[in-house]
Write a structure and sequence with these properties.
2 domains; Arc Repressor Mutant, subunit A
């Protein structure tokens, strides 16, 4: 019985992931406004009723996609940070910025659809949208740097929120099609220098 239960759970998790992956593909191809439950289940190759086993409505699916997106980006950041020594606090901050900007540029259409458009009310009530592992990771980087004396920070929480916003501002700058194309490396380097200055890395060092 235990093996059967675990098998059912694994199948359920896989089916949910397939629905999420199908929705991601459709959003990238057609945009958020054109997304329908019928399209998602059709792309995933399942009956429409299967959708409602895992999501009560389209809004809940979109909230789960936000969580999935943030978790995937954070996992990439964690892997990149694992390549650096734990004591290289400035380097870890630089890497977080580079990975975040690079990921959002790479997944421009998906990021824009999920985070630059208001989700339906049924997406908000799930509570899923509150999760932000990227923000948590940045706060850990800043906290570790401050504790080690590498960053001159009196308020890690506020600095985290401000630098997270600065990273997104850099992404928006690069994606603004109304301006002349900007050099990604230049904007990235400027953002990293700004982040180091904001946490007092040079002053602490």
């Amino acid at each position: 019985m235990r093996k059967t239960l675990r098998s059912d759970l694994e199948t359920g998790s896989r089916r949910r992931d397939e629905l999420l992956a199908a929705a991601e593909q459709l959003i990238v191809e057609r945009g958020l406004s054109a997304l329908t439950v019928d399209d998602v289940t059709g792309r995933a190759g399942v009956a429409k009723g299967t959708f409602y086993i895992y999501f009560s409505a389209k809004g809940e699916l979109l909230a789960a996609l936000r969580e999935r997106y943030a978790a995937a980006i954070c996992a990439e950041q964690e892997r990149a940070l694992a390549e650096l020594p734990a004591e290289d606090h400035g380097g870890r901050l630089d890497r977080w910025v580079a990975e975040a900007i690079g990921a959002h540029l790479e997944h421009e259409r998906l990021h824009d659809a999920l985070f630059h458009h208001e989700l339906p009310a049924d997406a908000i009530k799930t509570g899923v949208t509150a999760a932000n592992p990227q923000l948590d990771l940045l706060e850990r980087i800043l906290g570790a740097g401050a504790a080690a004396g590498a960053f001159a920070l009196a308020d890690v929480e506020t600095a985290t929120a401000l630098l997270y916003g600065a990273m997104h501002a850099a992404v928006d700058l690069l994606l603004d099609r109304g301006q002349r194309p900007l050099d990604v490396d230049r904007v990235l380097s400027a953002t990293q220098r700004f982040a180091r200055g904001a946490v007092g890395a040079d002053a602490a060092g």
